[in-house]
Structures are given as structure tokens and as C-alpha cells.
Amino acid sequence: MNAIQPSQPPQQPQSQPQHRAVPRPKRHLRQRSYRVMAIETTAKIAVNFAISAAAASALTQLLPYQWSQQDKLQEVHTEVKQMEKRVSTLQTQLNRNFDPSQTNSIRQQQGYKFAPNQMPIVLTNQEEAEIDTPSSLP
């Protein structure tokens, strides 16, 4: 295995340089590559067009739905504002009802009872009073 191998004399460079022959593509190969590139480009354009059509179709279906949702949201906001007003008035009434300094005025309003030093005033319509009472006595 470790035998000495005979040494070979160094090779001398050849006087003529070796030219590698580069094969030039033939004309029909070049045309074929152009066809492949054209088909590939056409396929890319077709796929992009299909994706664009799908996106446009999705938008035409989603936009009316989004508009209706916006209308519903606007209605909900309006109802929330109305409820907030109602809640605030009920809150003030609740605070008034539980205020000890307001108990006399609340009792007078709800029970139609007045303090002894107050006299109730009842307003009547004068026209109704004239119709009910005869104007000429027989």
C-alpha cells in the first residue's frame, strides 16, 4: 500500500493554447426560449387577471353589506344617545327622590296634600265655564 510509485515527468505546456469550443445556441432554440417566456408571461397575466376579477367580485358583494352594517351602527348610536338621556333624567329623579330635603315637595306633588298655610289654586278654562252655565235665565 505504501509502495513507491514511479514519478511521472512533469507535463510540458503545449505550444498551442487550447480553445474550448463554445456551442452557440441555434436559432430555433432561441425562438423556443422566447416562446416559453411568452407563454409564462401570458400565464402570469391570466392568473393576475383572475385574481383581480375575484377581488372585484368580492368587493361588489361586500360593499352593500358594509353599507347596511354602517346604517345599523348609526341606528344603534342614535338609540344609545336616547337611552343615555333617559338614564340621566331617571338618575336625577332618583337622586331627587332620595334627597331628604325634597321629601315635603315630593309628598305635595304626589299626594296633592298641602301645608296648612298654603291654598291650592285650580285653573279652569273660562270658555268651558260659560258653556256649562246658561247665560240667560228664564
Q: What is this entry, summarized?
A:
This protein has 138 residues and is mostly helical. Helix content is 63%, strand content 0%. The mean pLDDT is 80.
What does this structure look like?
With 138 residues, this protein is mostly helical. Helix content is 63%, strand content 0%. The protein is built from 3 helices and no strands. It has helices at 27-97, 103-111, 126-132. The longest helix is centred in the middle third of the chain and has 71 residues, at 27-97.
Give me the secondary-structure topology.
Elements: H1 27-97, H2 103-111, H3 126-132
Keywords:
0% strand; elongated
Oligomer: single chain
What fraction of residues sit in β-strands? under 5%
Q: Round the Cα radius of gyration to an integer and report it.
A: 52 Å
What's the order of the H and E elements? HHH
Give average pLDDT, whole number. Answer: 80
Number of strand elements: 0
Low-confidence stretches: none
The helicity comes to 55-70%
Largest beta-sheet details: none
Count of helix runs: 3
End-to-end distance: 162 Å
Structural class: mainly alpha
Q: What general outline do the C-alpha atoms trace?
A: elongated
